Amino acid sequence: MTSMSGSGNGVNRRSAVSALLALGLCGAAPARAAPAVYQDFWIAPRELWVYRKETGEVGRYEYWRDGQIQLEAWYEILHLLRDVVAGVAIHYDPRAIDIVWGVQEWIWRDSGRRHIFRLSDGARMESTNLMIKGASPVSEHLKGHATDGRFEGIDLNVYARAARSFRAGGVGLYKAHVHTDCGAIRTWGI
Q1: 171 within 8 A of 183, measured Cβ to Cβ
Q2: What is the number of structural domains in the chain?
Q3: C-alpha torsion sign, points 67, 2, 113, 182
Q4: Does 109 fall in a domain?
Q5: Which CATH number belongs to the domain containing residue 65 in this structure?
Q6: CA distance 63 to 117
Q7: Per the domain annotation, does 61 fall within a domain?
Q8: Which residues, 6+ apart, have CB-to-CB distance to 74 below 8 Å?
């Protein structure tokens, strides 16, 4: 069983609070109010609500609770993230999912509404990666480090800026989705 702490997963409370303040996700709330509202952010249970476009699969998965990965939900997420062309699921770095969850949670805490994450790409096998025009031969998707998608009802720029503010990896803004990964910190298209 994998154990993750709030400060050891590449995304910490200070980054999360900075993200909130930088993006103004709490509207006009004063800066002093954010820490009290969000101090439990990275220790709270993590439930991801996701829809897989190619397969029509949808679910809500509480994958982290009480400081540990919840294996049953985690395996369901891995299945959802599989390379649908090759039909293969691979190990995923939990930090990649934490980035998506972090943005989803910020939006929920700010608006009171959960926005489903529409996953368009997760894991890739080399054969699938070769079929994608412009895909990097060393794509983070090959390593189980990346997701592509969008949040229903949320502007792509807002999603990209929120993900970038965590400073937990790469963020790329495309016409129809945002790429996030837990690799090197870098941005493109933003």
Answers
A1: no
A2: 1
A3: positive
A4: yes
A5: 3.30.1380.10
A6: 15
A7: yes
A8: 61, 63, 94
Residue 6 lies in a domain: no
Which of 162, 186, 166, 168 has its CA nearest to residue 15?
A: 166
Say how many residues make up the chain: 190
> 90 is written with which tokens?
């691979």
Do 19 and 34 form a contact (C-beta atoms < 8 A)? no
Q: For 77-131, what is each residue's pLDDT tens digit?
A: 999 999 999 999 999 999 999 999 999 999 998 888 999 999 999 999 999 999 9
Residue 118 lies in a domain: yes
| Helices assigned H by DSSP within 132-190 | 156-165
Give the pLDDT band (50/70/90) at residue 26: very low
Q: What is the spatial distance between Cα 158 and Cα 107, in angstroms, rounded to a whole number?
A: 10
From the list 52, 49, 116, 102, the residue with the least C-alpha distance to 81 is 52
Give the separation between CA 178 and CA 120, rounded to whole angstroms. Answer: 10
Q: Please give the DSSP secondary-structure letter assigned to residue 25.
A: T
Q: Walk across the sheet containing 170-173 and list its strands.
A: 68-69, 57-65, 46-52, 117-121, 146-151, 178-181, 170-173, 186-188
The domain in which residue 79 lies consists of 13-188
Element of type H or E holding 36: helix 34-38
pTM, two decimal places: 0.81
